[in-house]
Specification:
Elements lengths: L5 E7 L7 H13 L5 E7 L11 H4 L3 E2 L5 E2 L2 H9 L8 E3 H14 L9 H17 L12 E6 L9 H14 L4 E8 L2 E2 L4 E2 L2 H12 L6 E6 L7 H9 L6 E5 L7 H7 L2 H9 L8 H22 L4 E8 L9 H13 L3 E8 L5 H6 L1 H13 L2 E4 L8 H13 L4 E4 L1 H13 L7 E2 L9 E5 L13 E9 L3 H5 L1 H5 L5 E8 L1 E3 L4 H6 L2 E7 L6 E6 L5 E4 L14 H10 L3 H5 L15
Length: about 575
């Protein structure tokens, strides 16, 4: 008999963006510390097939998976917290469900029946969750013991109604001991005296119960810990035990949320509710869980300590919404804490560095340049569209000329190539074909195999191998050593344009070395590093998608080491942590 996966559903009430993703990830982490195998699913009620065509300013970062799936940023949280590798099927959207049902109807799979939301759509949702919940997501190949399902949106939304109904039915399909509902709600602090109000949560739970679902656990977001009597009041009016009501108040960092939940007894409640103590787990796996928890506590402790700060300027075009670059921020945080530094991010809107801004808004122009010039390191992330590109070129030029550590990701690498071609190689008209189609001297060109007409899912997506060159230059490079002197690395991609291979020899002759190329053809430039510079690296892929709290991404690690003056010592193998017992994995 196949093992029955247990399911934890995480719903949200009162407002969107309340923190369901962090609660779901933190719960999964706590279960992993018990030695359990955990996977995750994110349900997004929008009609898009995937997140690939959504603007970062509208929905936050588009996260890319190994299989090329373009998904919601919450799946990035799951992968980072749980150290798992998810697939595009771990992100369910209304568009995917309806497409599957309509395709079945067109094939005649329903045998002439009237196709309806109930039961056909709701059955499709349940089948999808059950199928994906049993798929292994770790290197061990073990079937998950627990699947965390985050239900996007807010209880009461029209678009999420079929998913709520599907979960109401699902609780009976899998059985009482295999289904647990965590409802994340808001306890606002109102008035001059700062009184906490429970009515929004009471109303939210009432709506949820009216739809046929009763929460087993309440996770209440608030600026402050519960006042006296609040837990008991919520317990009485929401029909849950006081020990099942959790205060998820603001704390030092998001990395402290699992600690906060564990201290309030989350593991005990889940063990009792899902009969987790009946599961058979080997002593070796339990020991792995204990080690994970010790490392996580140390990582969170460092986040709360008063460490020396390193300032990194992020030069982008979506800087008004930090969630647009959430994986980049996490990559910097992970690298900084692993080298015992606190990260201080200065957001620089790329267009503010351009000359046009100097005439239109001199104050904004000078402020942007002040942030850039004062930074210990500069990072230019990926992006699409022409706005701000010349500002990014100027940022790359500043970093090159003033020996400031620089990391360019995707478009950030491409603007570094454009800047070098213009100012060092004498190609003054160098440009990207993305912004000047048919330009005389394209330093960046459209990849020949990419579809020019269809936008969704047609880029070069997912995990691809990059091979370091066998040359002495490549083997001496800092980025090669940061990757542990591996001959080949696998990173995730998301791009339509690439460095023009026809100008590579000229760029390399002037000191821009392409030390890594794609392993498939050897003609696609993947990693560049400048000669005679403390740290100037560009990568065509997105290393931020694979960063982990306890295992930072090598390009980010190199940037933080160089910006904090520790890179040479690290490459020589010198110890960075004071206490070898609490040193995190580097």
């Amino acid at each position: 008999m196949a093992k029955q996966t247990k399911y934890i559903i995480v719903s949200g009430g009162v407002i969107s963006g309340i923190g369901k993703g962090i609660i779901a990830s933190s719960t999964g982490l706590l279960l992993k510390t018990l030695g359990l195998t955990v996977t995750s699913i994110k349900i997004d009620p929008y009609l898009n097939i995937d997140a690939g065509t959504l603007s970062p300013l509208d929905h936050g970062e588009v996260f890319v998976l190994d299989d090329g799936g373009e998904v919601d940023l919450d799946l990035g949280n799951y992968e980072r917290y749980l150290n798992v590798t998810l697939t595009r099927d771990n992100n369910i959207t209304t568009g995917k469900i309806y497409r599957e049902v309509i395709d079945k109807e067109r094939r005649g799979d329903y045998l002439g029946k009237t196709v309806q939301v109930v039961p056909h759509i709701t059955n499709a949702i349940q089948d999808w969750v059950e199928r994906v919940g049993a798929m292994p997501t770790s290197d061990t190949g073990r079937t998950p013991d627990v699947c965390i399902v985050e239900l996007g949106g807010t209880v009461g939304d029209i678009e999420s109604a079929p998913f709520i109904e599907a979960m109401r039915q699902f609780q009976f399909r899998v059985g009482h001991d295999n289904f647990c509902l965590i409802h994340v709600s808001l306890v606002p602090v109102v008035g001059a005296v700062g009184e906490q109000k429970t009515k929004p949560t009471q109303a939210s739970v009432r709506d949820l119960r009216g739809l046929g679902l009763s929460p087993d656990i309440l996770a209440c977001r608030s600026a402050l810990p519960f006042e006296e009597g609040i837990r008991e009041k919520l317990s009485m009016f929401c029909q849950v035990s006081p020990k099942q009501v959790f205060s998820v108040h603001d704390c030092e960092s998001l990395y402290h949320v699992p600690i906060l939940l564990r201290e309030q007894g989350m593991i005990d409640v889940l063990t009792d509710r899902l009969k987790l103590d009946a599961l058979s787990i080997s002593k070796e796996i339990v020991l792995e869980g204990d080690t994970l928890w010790a490392q996580w506590r140390e990582f969170a402790r460092r986040r709360a300590r008063d460490l020396d700060a390193t300032t990194i300027a992020i030069v982008g075009k979506y800087t008004y919404l930090a969630d647009s670059y959430i994986s980049v921020v996490k990559g910097l945080e992970h690298a900084a804490l692993n080298v015992k530094r606190k990260i201080n991010i200065k957001w620089v809107e790329a267009s503010d560095l351009e000359e046009a801004t100097m005439h239109k808004d001199p104050l904004k122009y000078h402020e942007a340049w002040q942030h850039l010039c004062a930074a210990d390191g500069i990072l230019v992330p990926g992006g699409f569209g022409e706005r701000g590109v010349e500002g990014k070129v100027l940022a790359a030029k500043w970093a090159r000329e003033h020996n400031v550590p620089y990391l360019g990701i995707c478009l950030g690498m491409q603007v570094a190539v454009i800047e070098f071609a213009r100012n060092i190689c004498g190609m003054t008209d160098a440009q990207s074909a993305e912004f000047r189609e048919g330009c005389a001297l394209p330093a960046i060109v459209f990849m020949p195999e990419i579809d020019r007409t269809t936008m969704g899912g047609t880029m070069r997506l997912g995990s691809r191998p990059t091979k370091f060159q066998a040359s002495d230059v490549a083997r001496r490079s800092a980025i090669y050593k940061l990757y542990g002197s591996a001959n080949e690395v696998h990173e995730r991609h998301r791009h339509r344009y690439e460095v023009n291979p026809e100008i590579v020899s000229e760029l390399e002759a002037k000191g821009m070395q392409f030390v890594g190329r794609d392993a498939e053809t050897g003609e696609r430039m993947e990693i560049l590093e400048l000669d005679n510079h403390p740290y100037f690296v560009g990568v065509q892929y997105h290393p931020e998608y694979l960063t982990r709290p306890l295992n930072p991404s090598p390009p980010f690690l190199g940037l933080l080491l160089a910006a904090s003056g520790q890179l040479d010592a690290y490459l020589k193998g010198e110890e960075l942590a004071d206490d070898a017992e609490t040193k995190l994995k580097l």
